[in-house]
Amino acid sequence: MAVSNEHYRIILLGKCGSGKSSTGNSLLGEDNFQTASGVGGVTMELQRSVAVQKERKEGQRRTIEVTDTPGFSETKATTQEMVTTVVKSATVYRPEFITFVYVMKFNGYTRHDFLMYKRFLETFGPDMIRYTITLFTGGDYLKRKNHRDELERLMGQDFFQLSSNYIVFDNTASPTDKKNQTYRLLDKIKDVQAVNSKKPFTFDILERTDEYLRKAIKRKVSEVDKDEKEKKPKKAKTDVGKAVKVEVI
Ligand SMILES: Nc1nc2c(ncn2[C@@H]2O[C@H](COP(=O)(O)OP(=O)(O)OP(=O)(O)O)[C@@H](O)[C@H]2O)c(=O)[nH]1
Ligand SMILES: [Mg+2]
């Protein structure tokens, strides 16, 4: 039987403490990223980790690469901070297809969270939304089966007017439930690929953003390119069925 390969590249973004590292661990099926509840806590630098799975169907191999990022600061998330994180995490994957997963905490969601999310989308222009899935952690706090109704009741209409591509995650769930959540996210990523006709996100599509930002992004991209050239790439050790930590970017 022919082996089919699926490869997903996910970049987790969002405010400090929103649950990015916990979500990364749920996706990989292994605790590779340090979370606030573990020793070490807050994520300070970009980290990439990969899991290769061979299970969903006979003859199918699925690779999930996750990049965990330092959170945007609670009080002063600057445009520069967002540019640095997004460019550094995305540039190394060119020309592969990546999907941004913007993580927000459902429990304790505030107006500030909404405004930061809005700033993120505005910073990167109208194309960004087509490459972004919003993921709400704290699914264990949602009591009703109809998430949309409950999210709408708690957050108001604003969020849904911006984006309808979202998913709810419970990072405290059982391993089986975490796997099912992961499959749901991967299906959403396939939709994102289809919407974009598999054309990868590139920083060229930022032409419509303003002059200042375009220059800042270009500068950052060439900085990352230079770093990448100078850095000897570490061999990624992959292990079927296991998540392995690859490198700190
Ligand atoms: N109840 C519940 N707690 C969660 C969930 N996801 C994450 N948490 C908790 O939220 C806290 C923050 O999680 P992290 O994964 O460290 O958040 P982060 O976004 O990586 O944080 P920074 O690296 O500081 O930006 C931890 O105490 C997690 O255990 C969830 O789905 N449900
Ligand atoms: Mg973290």
UniProtKB/TrEMBL annotation:
Q: Which UniProt keywords apply?
A: GTP-binding, Nucleotide-binding
Output the Gene Ontology terms for molecular function.
Answer: GTP binding
Question: One Pfam family name from the record?
Answer: AIG1
Does the UniProt entry include the keyword Nucleotide-binding?
Answer: yes
Per its UniProt record, what InterPro entries does this chain match?
G_AIG1, GIMA/IAN/Toc, P-loop_NTPase
SUPFAM superfamilies, from UniProt? P-loop containing nucleoside triphosphate hydrolases
Q: Quote the PROSITE patterns the UniProt record gives.
A: G_AIG1
Domain AIG1-type G, residue spans: 5-210
Instruction: Outline the segment boundaries, as ranges, of region: Disordered.
Output: 223-249
PANTHER family in UniProt: GTP-BINDING PROTEIN A (PTHR10903:SF184), GTPASE, IMAP FAMILY MEMBER-RELATED (PTHR10903)
Family label: Belongs to the TRAFAC class TrmE-Era-EngA-EngB-Septin-like GTPase superfamily. AIG1/Toc34/Toc159-like paraseptin GTPase family. IAN subfamily.
Annotated protein name in UniProt = AIG1-type G domain-containing protein
